[in-house]
């Protein structure tokens, strides 16, 4: 078992109502507010001194502690920085927060050559001097919630400076190449000059929210961003963004925008977009096509006036999109009709900001009714658009006959046993779901037909779409008995962008480079496919098939984006299978029986990688991947925690449960400093040690989920309890309960949530 380097030797915090003294070696605790003078009886071998919520007003000096690495003084009435000159050469983590301190003593601080992380938040500082000389090894600087008006140079690659009085970006010239993260939310910047952001290819996080910006900043030098917030400013327009392959989270909420911005240069990566509290009333028809990977979207007008939903007519929504509407009621028009259909198929969650269903504003017969309560039949009582929808959703058990300018809805699904030939000729969308149709011999001419869906039907041959093949852009034929594609007439489908042929009986997919030259996405999961030939599709969803190798990607390698091959039959992935694909951001090879880790040198732009549920016994050193945020290695045969240093700067979600890893690196939360969620737990169910939480550089909240295993409530668990108290850690079991302790004996069987720090100090942890 690895021994933790986090040795907590003195804690003076807000414990119980009475004084507690521990019999543990070199460890004692004191009641917080009763402590009025600095304790000078701390054991000399202390590695960590943490003093919180006391009445101490003066710290004149700190004795020599040759092993002291971490020092914290928080929520105290001191007005001068503690004199750490005697221990300055060993300290790596320093936290002096929530005090009355107004200046840094740079004289003796120049000897703090090992300091990596400093947190001086919630004080009364007005400036931060040049730290390049003072702290040459500094990695992160946290100084939010002061009254700072100036920050000079620093070596820190992460800066948390929100809630200050800054009017300009700090000088980043000294750290520009390796700079990672800048949080300047809630300051006083009216503009950001171009020179303020030098070339920073590794920078992944910028927050300039709540600053009063009137002009959009130039982002040409930070194209590696994964997170960007410009919320709560005074922006009236958004220029064309530079090409950003990895931007996933983008907030433009609470500005003065009246037009939806052009996001085509970030469309491939964007998953979360906030654009509410502007005055945007309508959205592009093909929004969910352009932003095809969007998972959440928040909309709503600042004025509270009604809003039109985006168009949901594309069939290329592989996952579920959550749309949250702030303040506004809905215009329940054609787009709302498609939203209702998407909602029925499980591809859309539509809610208000209070998690209720948003109300309709218009048309009059729907005004005031919640969207959730309205049926497609209700919406068809007034002309919403040019569509033909036939499904079994009519709850009345009676046919609905409504025809209006190209839209028709014909009754109960399973009662329909023959293909309807009375569809209006100007239909743009034909959607036929859950009928008893077994044959579709031909489809008439529809000069405007763009989208065709035939799903959950008993047809065994592909519908003959020859008459409409030249106009169709989206084709979905799913959950049928079809076993082959008719490539003869399909060669005329020159405009087809998205095809979904999932849940059928297909065994192979022919060369589609000639058949569908414009194809962008191919969804063919849950068939019995053993071979996929070439295709132009840059996104392929092929999970739940019988594939033994990766499809030929040579035709699309440069622009390839997404490959989902979960639950197939691949024992290995040869190096040649993944050609150079710099834009590829998503790979899922889970549930394949892989015994060797694939070579990822050609896909270093990934943001998501899953290798879960395989037979991997080790993980080699990964290539340098600046944007990998989600990584799953769960359910393999690993017994050692992998070296993740090359993805440490970007990783936010890591799943490594259901292996046989029992211990974790001491400095895990330092190396993976941006981790937001971690799942651990041994496949055998044997007890597990928690990672070390002794670093003070955890700016956000880390959620640790424990699967199957009980905890060894040792020294790492003690630090976890402290982190939990400060709001920096959520620790839970997979059932959302608090995990139980396995050992030491006096804690065995007790839930971690119920145990106090005093309980843990009763035995040497």
Which key terms come to mind for this protein?
765 residues; mainly beta; Leucine-rich repeat, LRR (right-handed beta-alpha superhelix); 17-stranded mixed sheet; 16-stranded parallel sheet; globular; disordered N terminus; Leu-rich_rpt; repeat; LRR_dom_sf
Mind explaining what this structure looks like?
It holds the Pfam family LRR_1. One of its GO terms (cellular component) is plasma membrane. Keywords: Leucine-rich repeat, Repeat, Signal. The chain is mainly β and 765 residues long. Among the domains are: 136 residues, Leucine-rich repeat, LRR (right-handed beta-alpha superhelix) (Alpha-Beta Horseshoe); 74 residues, no CATH class; 109 residues, Alpha-Beta Horseshoe (Leucine-rich repeat, LRR (right-handed beta-alpha superhelix)), CATH 3.80.10.10. 7% of the residues lie in helices and 20% in strands. The protein contains ten helices and 43 strands. The strands form six sheets. The chain has a 17-stranded mixed β-sheet.
**Name of the top-level CATH class of one domain:** Alpha Beta
What does the average pLDDT come to? 83
Using the alpha-carbon principal axes, give the shape: globular
Name given to the CATH architecture of one domain? Alpha-Beta Horseshoe
Distance between the termini: 14 Å
CATH topology of one domain: Leucine-rich repeat, LRR (right-handed beta-alpha superhelix)
> How many H/I helical runs?
10
In terms of DSSP E residues, the strand content is: 15-25%
- Strand count, sense and closure of the main sheet? 17 strands, mixed
> What is the CA-atom radius of gyration, in angstroms?
30 Å
Low-confidence stretches: 1-31, 383-387, 392-413
CATH homology group of one domain: Ribonuclease Inhibitor
Give helix % range: under 10%
Which secondary-structure class do the elements indicate? Answer: mainly beta
Number of strands: 43
GO cellular component, one term: plasma membrane
Keywords: Leucine-rich repeat, Repeat, Signal
Pfam families: LRR_1 (PF00560)
């Amino acid at each position: 078992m690895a021994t933790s380097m986090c040795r907590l030797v003195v804690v003076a915090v807000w414990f119980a109502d009475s004084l507690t003294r521990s019999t543990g070696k070199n460890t004692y605790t004191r009641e917080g507010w009763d402590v009025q003078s600095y304790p000078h009886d701390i054991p000399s071998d202390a590695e960590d001194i943490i003093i919180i919520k006391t009445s101490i007003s003066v710290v004149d000096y700190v004795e020599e502690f040759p092993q002291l690495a971490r020092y914290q003084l928080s929520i105290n009435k001191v007005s001068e920085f503690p004199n750490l000159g005697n221990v300055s050469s060993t300290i790596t983590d320093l936290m002096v927060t929530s005090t009355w301190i107004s200046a840094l003593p740079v004289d003796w601080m120049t000897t703090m050559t090992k300091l990596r992380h400093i947190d001086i938040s919630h004080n009364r500082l007005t400036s931060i001097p040049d730290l390049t000389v003072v702290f040459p090894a500094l990695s992160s600087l946290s100084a939010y919630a002061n009254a700072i008006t100036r920050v000079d140079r620093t070596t820190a690659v992460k800066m948390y400076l929100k809630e200050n009085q800054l009017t300009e970006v700090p000088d980043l010239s000294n750290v520009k190449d390796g700079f990672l993260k800048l949080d300047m939310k809630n300051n006083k910047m009216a503009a950001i000059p171009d020179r303020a952001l030098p070339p920073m290819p590794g920078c992944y996080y910028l927050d300039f929210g709540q600053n009063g910006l009137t002009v959009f900043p130039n982002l040409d030098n930070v194209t590696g961003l994964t997170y960007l917030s410009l919320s709560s400013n005074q922006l009236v327009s958004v220029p064309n963004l530079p090409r950003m392959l990895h931007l996933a989270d983008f907030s433009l909420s609470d500005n003065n925008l009246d037009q939806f911005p052009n996001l085509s240069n970030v469309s491939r990566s964007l998953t979360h977009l906030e654009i509410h509290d502007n005055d945007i009333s309508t959205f592009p028809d093909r929004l969910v096509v352009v932003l095809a990977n969007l998972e959440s979207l928040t909309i709503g007008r600042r004025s509270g006036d009604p809003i039109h939903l985006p168009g949901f007519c594309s069939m290329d929504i592989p996952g579920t999109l959550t749309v949250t509407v702030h303040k506004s009621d809905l215009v329940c028009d054609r787009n709302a009709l498609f939203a209702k259909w998407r909602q029925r198929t499980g591809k859309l969650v539509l809610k208000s900001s209070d998690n209720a269903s948003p109300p309709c504003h218009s048309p009059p017969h729907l005004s005031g009714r919640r969207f959730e309560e309205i049926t497609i039949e209700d919406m068809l009582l007034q002309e919403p658009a040019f569509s033909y929808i036939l499904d079994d959703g009519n709850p009345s058990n009676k046919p609905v006959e409504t025809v209006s300018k190209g839209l028709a809805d014909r009754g109960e699904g399973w009662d329909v046993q023959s293909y309807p030939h009375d569809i209006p000729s100007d239909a743009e969308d034909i959607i036929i779901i859950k009928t008893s149709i077994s044959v579709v011999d031909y489809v008439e001419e529809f000069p405007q037909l763009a989208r065709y869906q035939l799903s959950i039907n008993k047809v065994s041959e592909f519908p003959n779409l020859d008459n409409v093949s030249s106009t169709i852009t989206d084709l979905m034929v799913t959950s049928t008995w079809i076993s082959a594609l008719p490539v003869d007439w399909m060669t005329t489908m020159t405009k087809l962008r998205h095809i979904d042929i999932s849940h059928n009986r297909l065994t192979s997919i022919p060369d589609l480079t000639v058949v569908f030259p414009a194809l962008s996405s191919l969804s063919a999961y849950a068939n019995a496919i053993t071979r996929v030939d070439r295709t132009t599709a840059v996104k392929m969803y092929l999970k739940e098939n019988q594939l033994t190798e990766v499809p030929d990607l040579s035709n699309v390698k440069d622009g390839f984006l997404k490959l989902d091959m979960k639950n197939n039959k691949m024992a290995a992935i040869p190096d040649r299978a993944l050609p150079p694909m710099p834009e590829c951001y998503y790979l899922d090879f889970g549930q394949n029986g892989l015994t060797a880790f694939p070579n990822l040198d050609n896909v270093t732009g990934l943001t998501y990688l899953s290798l879960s549920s395989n037979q991997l016994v080790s993980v080699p050193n990964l290539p340098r991947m600046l944007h990998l945020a989600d990584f799953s290695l769960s359910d393999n045969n690993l017994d050692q925690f992998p070296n993740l240093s090359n993805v440490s700067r970007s990783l936010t979600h890591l799943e490594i449960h259901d292996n046989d890893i029992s211990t974790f690196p001491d400095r895990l939360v330092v190396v993976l400093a941006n981790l937001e969620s971690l799942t651990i737990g041994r496949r055998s169910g044997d007890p597990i040690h928690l990672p070390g939480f002794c670093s003070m550089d955890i700016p956000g909240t880390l959620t640790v989920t424990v699967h199957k295993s009980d905890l060894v409530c040792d020294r790492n668990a003690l630090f976890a309890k402290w982190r939990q108290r400060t709001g920096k850690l959520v620790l839970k079991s997979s059932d959302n309960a608090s995990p139980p302790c396995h050992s030491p004996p006096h804690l065995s069987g007790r839930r971690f949530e119920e145990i106090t720090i005093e309980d843990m100090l009763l035995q040497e942890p």
